[in-house]
Amino acid sequence: MRYGIDVAILGELAEPARLVALAREAEAAGWDAVLVWDHLAFAWGTPSADPWVALAAAAQATSRIRLGTAVTAVARHRPEVLAHTVATLDRLSGGRVILGGRAGWRARGVHRFRFGASWRGGARRGSRRDVLALVR
């Protein structure tokens, strides 16, 4: 079994340097992973960091710990862009990336940030499969 820390990179933790420090401390303490939220909390008026940029900074500051998203709402992303971002971070980190993905939470939230997305039953049909096929 492996253990990781789940971090909401919102508010005070939206500062990427804080995630870098936390990732270094977690690695030194023997944790297996640091996972962050991929959330658009700025819509609520809360500062939030881009998870992939923050994870890239953490990847450069660590050497062993796995890094990734606890949950990425795949329907909110263009599959080819998300796949490219994840693959680039995986190369940058030396193969330490974890992509936690799901369809999304609410249709209203996906429509608000994903113009033109077709929403059927809570997810853009095929988006998870598209991303997984591209990441592989």
Task: Explain what this protein looks like in three dimensions.
The protein has 5 helices and 4 strands; from the N terminus they run E-H-E-H-E-H-E-H-H. By secondary structure, the protein is an alpha/beta fold. Strands 1-2-3-4 form a 4-stranded parallel sheet, with helices on one face. Helix 1 (16-28) links the parallel strand 1 (4-7) and strand 2 (33-38). Helix 1 packs across helix 2, helix 2 (51-61) packs parallel to helix 3 (79-92) and helix 3 runs parallel beside helix 5 (127-135). The longest helix has 14 residues, at 79-92.
Element layout with pairings:
Layout: E1 4-7, H1 16-28, E2 33-38, H2 51-61, E3 66-73, H3 79-92, E4 97-102, H4 107-113, H5 127-135
Parallel strand pairs: 1-2, 2-3, 3-4
Helix pairs in contact: 1-2, 2-3, 3-5
Helix content: 25-40%
How many distinct beta strands?
Answer: 4
For the largest beta sheet, what order do the strands appear in spatially? 1-2-3-4
The best one-word shape is globular
Q: How would you name the oligomeric state of the polypeptide chains in this document?
A: single chain
Strand content: 15-25%
Poorly predicted regions are 115-125
Largest sheet: 4 strands, parallel
Report the structural category: alpha/beta
Number of helices: 5
How far is the N terminus from the C terminus?
24 Å
**What is the gyration radius calculated from CA atoms?**
15 Å
- Tell me the series of helices and strands, N- to C-terminal: EHEHEHEHH
